[in-house]
Design brief:
The chain is α/β, with parallel strands linked by helices. The chain folds into two domains: about 200 residues, Rossmann fold (3-Layer(aba) Sandwich); about 110 residues. The chain is about 30% helix and about 20% strand. It has ten helices and 14 strands. The strands form two sheets. It has a nine-stranded mixed beta sheet with strand order 3-4-2-5-1-6-7-8-14, with helices on both faces. Strands 9-13-12-10-11 form a five-stranded mixed beta sheet. Helix 4 packs across helix 9.
């Protein structure tokens, strides 16, 4: 039962949610009526995004798509570079950092060893044009977090939905966490339900499909995270320990997170025998000197025969570049890599085969000559 505070908050936020929803509705209608123009390109574009604020697993799914398609195509990734300290179009290179291109684009570029082109640009149409001008050999562009960026018309639109936060039970901002209403799901070609539990029954798949009310042309898939072996954040510091299985109830792990939905990350460590402490910061947090001093203090106060810090892959790329990170902790801090495992649900085909088919089947637009769009 809702408390009085919750009810008052709902009453206060509901009008704001209506106003927000009306603004989003009008914007989408302007695109549907072609008053606001969508631009197509001669190179196939895959858009990966969501209609929920934060935490659906966009970056791991972009990495999954790139890893499966880059073997047969020359693939590039374009992101806006959220919270970077630069502006405009920038290509990732050996001198890039999370500050210059953003933590998630840097993570993608670093993971693929520079073999996949990665660029950032607030204006996606400008970014695509620049990518193709600099590297005309590119055969496929993956747009990260671009479902709402309708100025680019993708060849395939992939929409992600968190299993535990389905869009059909949520509300629009600021009352809920939806960027758009559930009707926006109709723009997606493929829907991926992310962070699914390991054991799902046929009824679970059917209920989700029924609640989403998908059209005949839309295809739905399910995914879950797989956790790999720990890796050192500072590999040159000769880490002395990197295996969770050997830790006992006498040992302690400090989980350090700066992500939107840390509960999935924390939950992974609960079955182990060691004690767990958590230090959580906001998503994309830029760790200050005082933050790291507080983390060091918390680490020193922890009990345990062996103590380590484990962070997320996204946080690791920021920490590795942080000049304030305490030297004495560098050998003791590790990150937890994750990978995506796809589940076809009740379908007979797999996600990547379907994605390849969609890319090859759909005709590519020929409006890339339009040069006056700067969004």
């Amino acid at each position: 039962m809702k408390s009085t505070t919750d009810r008052l908050l709902t009453y206060a936020l509901t009008p704001l949610s209506w106003l927000y929803g009306m603004a989003v509705y009008v914007r989408n209608k302007l695109f549907d009526a072609k008053i606001l123009k969508e631009m197509e390109f001669d190179v196939p574009v895959i858009s990966v995004g969501n209609i929920t604020v934060g935490g659906t697993g966009k970056t791991p799914h972009v990495e999954y798509i790139v890893s499966r398609l880059s073997g047969s195509r020359n693939v590039a990734v374009l992101s806006r570079g959220y919270k970077r300290k630069t502006h405009g179009f920038i290509m990732a290179n050996s001198k890039s950092s999370p500050d210059s291109i953003g933590d998630e684009p840097y993570q993608i570029w670093h993971k693929f060893g520079g073999k996949v082109r990665v660029a950032v640009c607030e204006k996606r149409t400008v970014g695509i044009k620049q990518l193709m001008r600099l590297h005309p050999e590119i055969e496929l562009i993956v747009l990260d977090d671009a479902f709402q960026h309708r100025y680019v018309k993708p060849k395939v639109s992939v929409l992600l939905m968190d299993y535990s936060r389905p869009v059909y039970t949520d509300r629009l901002l600021p009352l809920g966490r939806l960027r758009e209403s559930i009707h926006a799901v109709g723009r997606a070609d493929m829907i991926v339900v992310t962070k699914c539990p390991d054991q799902m029954q046929p009824l679970d798949y059917r209920l989700i499909e029924k609640n989403l009310e998908l059209m005949a042309y839309q295809k739905i898939y399910f995914s879950r995270f797989r956790y790999e072996s720990l890796e050192p954040v500072f590999p040159d510091e000769s880490p002395y320990y990197a295996s969770l299985e050997d830790l006992t109830e006498r040992d302690t792990v400090l989980l350090l997170t700066g992500i939107a939905q840390p509960r999935y990350f924390v939950r992974h460590f609960t079955p182990y025998r060691f004690r767990v402490k958590v230090s959580h910061f906001p998503d994309h947090h830029d760790f200050s000197r005082s933050d790291l001093q507080e983390i060091e203090r918390k680490f020193d106060e922890m009990e345990g025969e062996r103590k380590i810090i484990v962070t997320t892959e996204k946080d690791a790329v920021r920490l590795a570049f942080n000049p304030y990170f305490p030297d004495k902790l560098k050998p003791l801090v590790f990150f937890q890599p994750i990978s995506v495992s796809m589940d076809s649900g009740l379908r007979s085909d797999d996600f990547i085969s379907c994605l390849r088919s969609e890319i090859d089947r759909r005709p590519v637009g020929g409006n890339s000559h339009i040069s006056d769009i700067t969004h």
